[in-house]
Design a protein that fits this description.
The complex is a heterodimer. Chain A has 7 helices and 7 strands. Chain A has helices at 17-28, 41-53, 68-81, 106-127, 154-174, 203-209, 218-229; strands at 8-11, 32-37, 57-62, 86-91, 131-140, 180-186, 240-243. In chain A, α1 (17-28) runs parallel beside α2, α1 crosses α7 and α4 packs parallel to α5. The longest helix of chain A is centred in the middle third of the chain and has 22 residues, at 106-127. Chain A is globular, with a radius of gyration of 17 Å. Helix content of chain B is 41%, strand content 18%. In chain B, β5 (131-140), α5 (154-174) and β6 (180-186) form a beta-alpha-beta unit. Chain B is globular. The chains are: A alpha/beta, B alpha/beta. The A-B interface holds A 167-169, 171-172, 174-176, 178, 180, 187, 210-213, 216-217, 220-221, 223-224, 226-227, 232-239, 241-246, 248-249 and B 167-169, 171-172, 174-176, 178, 180, 187, 210-213, 216-217, 220-221, 223-224, 226-227, 232-239, 241-246, 248-249.
Chain lengths: 249, 249
């Protein structure tokens, strides 16, 4: 099964967790994948090695999506090493903060919004100049955009809600070219950011809060993203899909 | 190996349009399918014959989902045909009528709610007794549940909104068994009910409204249903997924 044969995909924040799983699955379906990282060079090389060992194509690029010069340089070097065209753009790079409004300052706000919101805008703005007709843009939001559930997440939830609104607006802009834009909103996924372990103070509560009574895996999120990247999702656009084990049910 | 090899599925309202496309897609992915029809026996038989001719496994059953006796008989037949176990239930049977509240009648309300809402409840109530752990319930709602778009759609919209409510509630009930419950909300799909033709007074508007500027195809909905029926959707539950070409974006 290689439903993405001949396609080219960009996945931001692909050194680990959900982004790495997305890059692996897209590559396993036949796409050539550009993976970006910030800082995690050796981890990303490890993901690229896994992709290549499985017979796929992967290339690593460093980028800070919150720095416009860095994003411009990414697209320049992708053009040189990866080709100009793109079919699939996965905006996954993001940061998290756990601070109630009583402790949050503008620096916290700027860090969250510069990466999660302005960074997504900037990557997609460049990508749409290269994306082919019938392409796919998939952003990774968070189910916290719909219901916040726990204290301390307001600023983060705000940044992810902005991502969901982008998706509806950009779907309108790009629909006439057959390009679909969708947003995937994961719930509790077992990653370094939010491990399913006794040491994580909220993990027990999150296990209980889902209807499936468990954390999800990065691979489960990647399966949905891979479906949305495939030709079979052609009539879904402007849609925000929670993949949260029923947390928001 | 096909994604649904060894699985069994029940698809209601499968004689034509979206239901027939779903039956075809699930069968081509390897599932053994029982398809129901209310009136069009010949059309349902033709779909089943096509599936069987292509190496799939399908059989037809008459069912009026608004009649509790008929639903009981259907599930007895499903037991005999599929051997007592069910993996996938697709609640697709439904009716549509146009009428403004100024001309509203209880008969019309009852016709729509008996099939779309009470029928879905009754079929699901019986089916969950047969559904295996990790099973799938997928209900076909409508994007009109989110926005009515036109006059005369109030009762139909409300009936489809009820299905989205069922989805969240039943996901809570069945999550501990790993059974996922999702609702697909199609937009304008080119079928006998709403053809993409010059003599359909709504067609021009419905082509212009979605971001993609076109009707969808029954096969595009079926591909989403097939993804939701597959093991790859295991963390997606209690969620409505709208496939409307961006009509609600």
């Amino acid at each position: 099964m290689s439903q993405l044969e001949g396609k080219k995909a960009l996945v931001t924040g692909a050194s680990r967790g959900i982004g790495a799983a997305i890059a692996r699955q897209l590559a396993a379906e036949g796409a050539a994948v550009a993976l970006t990282y910030i800082g995690g060079r050796s981890e990303t090389d490890g993901v690229v090695d896994q992709i290549r060992a499985a017979g796929g194509s992967g290339h690593a690029f460093e980028v800070d999506v919150s720095a416009p010069d860095s994003v411009a340089a990414l697209f320049d070097s992708m053009g040189d090493q990866f080709g100009e065209d793109l079919d699939i753009v996965i905006s996954n790079a993001g940061v998290q903060a756990n601070k109630p409004i009583t402790e949050c300052d503008l620096e916290d706000f700027d860090r969250l919004f510069n990466v999660n919101v302005r960074g997504t805008f900037e990557v997609v703005r460049h990508a749409v100049t290269r994306i082919r007709n019938n392409g796919r843009i998939i952003t990774v939001g968070a189910c916290l955009a719909d219901r916040t559930i726990v204290p301390g997440m307001g600023t983060y939830a705000g940044s992810k809600a902005a991502i969901a609104a982008f998706c509806r607006g950009w779907a309108q802009d790009l629909g006439p070219r057959g390009i679909t834009v969708n947003c995937v909103q994961p719930g509790p996924i077992d990653t370094d950011m939010n491990p399913d372990s006794e040491q994580n103070p909220i993990s027990r509560m999150l296990n209980e809060a889902t209807t499936l009574k468990r954390y999800g895996t990065s691979e489960e999120v990647a399966s949905l993203v891979t479906y949305l990247a495939s030709p079979g999702s052609q009539y879904i656009t402007g849609e925000v899909i929670n993949i949260d084990g029923g947390l928001n049910a | 190996m096909a994604a649904l090899d060894g699985k069994t599925a029940l698809v209601t309202g499968a004689s034509r349009g979206i239901g027939a496309a779903i039956a075809r897609q699930l069968a081509s992915d390897g599932a053994e399918v029982v398809m129901t029809y209310a009136g069009s026996a010949a059309k349902a038989e033709q779909v089943a014959n096509d599936i069987n001719a292509e190496g799939g496994a399908a059989s037809v059953a008459h069912a009026d989902v608004s009649s509790p006796d008929s639903v009981s008989r259907l599930l007895e037949l499903v037991d005999r045909t599929l051997g007592g176990g069910l993996d996938i239930l697709v609640n697709n049977a439904g009716v549509a009528e146009h009428s403004a509240i100024q001309q509203g009648e209880l008969d019309e309300y009852d016709r729509i709610f008996r099939v779309n809402v009470r029928g879905t409840f009754d079929v699901t109530r019986h089916a969950v007794q047969r559904l295996r752990d990790q099973g799938r319930i997928i209900t076909i709602g409508s994007c009109l549940a989110l926005r009515a778009v036109f006059p005369t759609m109030g009762v139909y919209s409300a009936s489809k909104a009820a299905l989205a409510g069922f989805t969240r509630g039943w996901a809570q009930d069945l999550g501990p068994r790993g059974i996922t419950v999702t609702c697909v909300q199609p937009g304008s799909i080119d079928t006998d009910l709403n053809p993409d033709t010059a003599d359909n007074e709504y067609a021009q508007v419905l082509r212009d409204l979605p971001a993609l500027k076109r009707y969808g195809k029954a096969e595009e909905i079926a591909q989403l249903v097939a993804f939701l029926a597959s093991s790859g959707s295991s963390y997606l539950t209690g969620q409505t997924v709208t496939a409307d070409g961006g009509l609600n974006a």
